Amino acid sequence: MTIKDLARQTGYSVGTVSRVLNGQPNVSDKAKQAILDCANKSGFQLNMNAKYLKQQRGDGVMALVTGTSNELFAHMIEHIQRELSQTQYPLTVDYLDENEDAVHHALRISREKKPLGLLFLGGNSQMFAQNFGNVSLPSVALTADASGLPFPNLSSVTTDDAAAAECAIDYLYDCGHREIGVITGDLLVSGPSRLRYTGCSRALVRHGIDVSEARFVTARYSYAAGYDAALRLIAKNSKITAIFAMSDVMAIGAIRALHDRGLRVPEDISVIGFDGIDPGTYYIPNLTTIRQHVDLLAKRGVALLLQGIENRAVATHETVPFALVERDSVIKRNFREG
Amino acid sequence: MTIKDLARQTGYSVGTVSRVLNGQPNVSDKAKQAILDCANKSGFQLNMNAKYLKQQRGDGVMALVTGTSNELFAHMIEHIQRELSQTQYPLTVDYLDENEDAVHHALRISREKKPLGLLFLGGNSQMFAQNFGNVSLPSVALTADASGLPFPNLSSVTTDDAAAAECAIDYLYDCGHREIGVITGDLLVSGPSRLRYTGCSRALVRHGIDVSEARFVTARYSYAAGYDAALRLIAKNSKITAIFAMSDVMAIGAIRALHDRGLRVPEDISVIGFDGIDPGTYYIPNLTTIRQHVDLLAKRGVALLLQGIENRAVATHETVPFALVERDSVIKRNFREG
DNA sequence: TTGTACGCGTTATCAA
DNA sequence: TTGATAACGCGTACAA
Questions:
Q1: A38-45 long-range contacts, Cβ below 8 Å, gap at least 24?
Q2: What class does CATH assign to A3-46?
Q3: Distance, in angstroms, between B93 CA and closest chain A CA?
Q4: Contact B52 A49 (CB under 8 A)
Q5: With an 8 Å Cβ cutoff, are B108 and A45 in contact?
Q6: Closest by alpha carbon to B58, among B11, B22, B4?
Q7: How far is it, in rounded angstroms, from Cα B60 to Cα B121?
Q8: What is the mean pLDDT of each run of 10 residues along chain B (338 residues)?
Q9: Do A74 and B68 touch (CB under 8 A)?
Q10: Is the sign of the CA dihedral B79, B82, B84, B89 positive or negative?
Q11: Integer Cα distance of A112 and A4 in angstroms
Q12: Which residues make up the interface with nucleic strand C when CB must lie under 7 A?
């Protein structure tokens, strides 16, 4: 079934059929009726390959999500969808593997589907630095800070990761914790992790706590890695009374590990996470965390993208508020020292 | 950058360039070198629209995953990937929204990308029943039983959901529970849920427990829905000592709800889940569950697909073993009655 | 071993 | 308001 067949069956030409199918003007109601009827009856679908091949400019925006099962991004996509549904731009989402190069993919997409704009969820800034120069579409990076990058068409919206991490450490300190451990993401590949590390250091120094290597362990963003990391951390430093994990997923893995070692959370060790995803809400103990403002991230991201598309606005870099969510995985210690 | 440009730059013709890019024979090493060099240097990428449009038959298989953030399917995809990497068939994965029609999408894919075979993860059997007649590619449904359907090109691999649910109820019974509640999926849309319901009934009847409406509540497969469902269940039937939730996600939501009502799990109420996904492993209490054999599901699914592709084998319907994973969310009751 | 030319299904331009 | 026809970028007979 092609538009050619539709044309033959209805007695019109492919030109007219195409115009009807794309809702273009200058078609008689009679033709529209006949063609639409026939299309529905036969379950006709346009071949997008041909459409994209011919079309020199699409009409939607595309979101590139790096890292499949990522709760945070999943929610963000929902909000983006909602924002975009207020506009005329359809959204298409592509899911990429953790280790795929989002920018590389963006290049292909630009040529093939020719969207009006690009939304990057995740992906590390090194990718952007290296290859983004070749993409010419208005783009915005969500949760990856691009403010240091020299691209006039790449905006970004992020949580202030450094400040947020600082807030987490401050909170632990205020609860009386002095021996604080941190489970970080991979500082080499994750921009947000680096920023959060910076925030941690700043807070620790400010409180007169040494920023020794013994406080930090690195992990991938998974339950299993968090589990493992917690074990390494308490092996390295047995006096720890509180842990800041740079994601909720790692925090949950960590709590489980402590539990399996016979340590109670929060009575023996407190744990604070980062992100504010669903599973933390349903965990026992209810996970104390720094919540990223997912809907604002989405809302501002879409707004900046539209500005880029409609006003050719130059790249802007925004930061969005976060929130400390006090729940049950951090406890106040009785402390004598201050 | 098109193959035309590559041809011009290297002095060869588009025919030769195309042959090189597709690794076809009858090309001089010299030409191969020159063209590949030039392609790499310029970061050339084939336009897949044009490729698919022209190609009358692809060379890979496609997996259609219904329901984005679904842990079970995410793992299954990994295993499928692994299986397929042993073969010559590249895998492409498409993620569909919960409420999209996978078969509809399959139809489009068949025409546009022309894969050799289709793998359906999720999707309900009503879709298959209604529209699958139009797809002619060898296909296999994973976790959706298609044995009742009259399609010679649609195989299926499932866990024996009825037996598995029966096992869950038996286990609760053996642990001394008599007042058992069940959180089901939507019986109207979910085939597996219906089968599990059947298994539940069978086991309850066998144990002389009434199959009253008061034991059952329906929920979507989410934490929040599980939470809500547990509340409804204990409101309906306050004597319940054990709950079988038809997914781990619902089970976790349920445990949280019970916890918030001041009920301890498993001391006051036991909970058993279904699936065997990661979060259950890291939950506290460690979630007792019926584990689906994800890697076998993947392995057999791929095997059946290959048989369909390579031997035009007629559809086969298999069942794969499950496992009762005894962990900490179910407790043995002291019971007097037997 | 290489080049030429046609067609995949659509959009878009131009003439009718 | 409609119809013919030229692209879009590629694969592939077929000819050279």
A1: A38/A6, A38/A9, A38/A10, A39/A6, A42/A1, A42/A5, A42/A6, A42/A9, A43/A1, A43/B107, A43/B134, A44/A1, A44/A6, A45/A1, A45/B107, A45/B108, A45/B111
A2: mainly alpha
A3: 9
A4: yes
A5: yes
A6: B22
A7: 17
A8: 95 96 93 95 95 92 91 96 96 92 95 96 89 95 95 97 98 97 94 96 97 96 97 96 98 98 97 97 98 98 97 96 98 68
A9: yes
A10: positive
A11: 23
A12: A 2-4, 14-15, 18, 21-22, 45-47, 49-51, 53-57; B 11-16, 19, 25-28, 30-31, 50, 53-54
Sign of the four-CA dihedral B241, B243, B248, B254: negative
State which residue of chain A sits closest to B111, comparing Cα positions: A47
Asked if strand D contacts B4 at the CB level, meaning under 7 A, the answer is: yes
In chain B, where the domains are located = 3-46, 58-159+293-321, 161-292+325-337
Inter-chain touch B111–A45, beta carbons under 8 Å: yes
**pLDDT reported for residue B338:** 40
State phi, psi for A199 to the nearest 5 degrees.
-60, -45
Architecture per CATH, domain B161-292+325-337, reads as 3-Layer(aba) Sandwich (3.40)
| CATH code at A58-159+293-321 | 3.40.50.2300
Which of A48, A108, A285 has the CB atom closest to B45's CB atom?
A: A108
Same fold, A58-159+293-321 and A161-292+325-337: yes
Residues recorded for chain B = 338
Of B1, B69, B284, the CB nearest to A259: B284
Give the position of tokens 């009253």.
B212
* Bridge partners (DSSP) listed for residue B218: B184
* Cβ–Cβ < 8 Å for B237, B264: no
DSSP symbol at B334: P
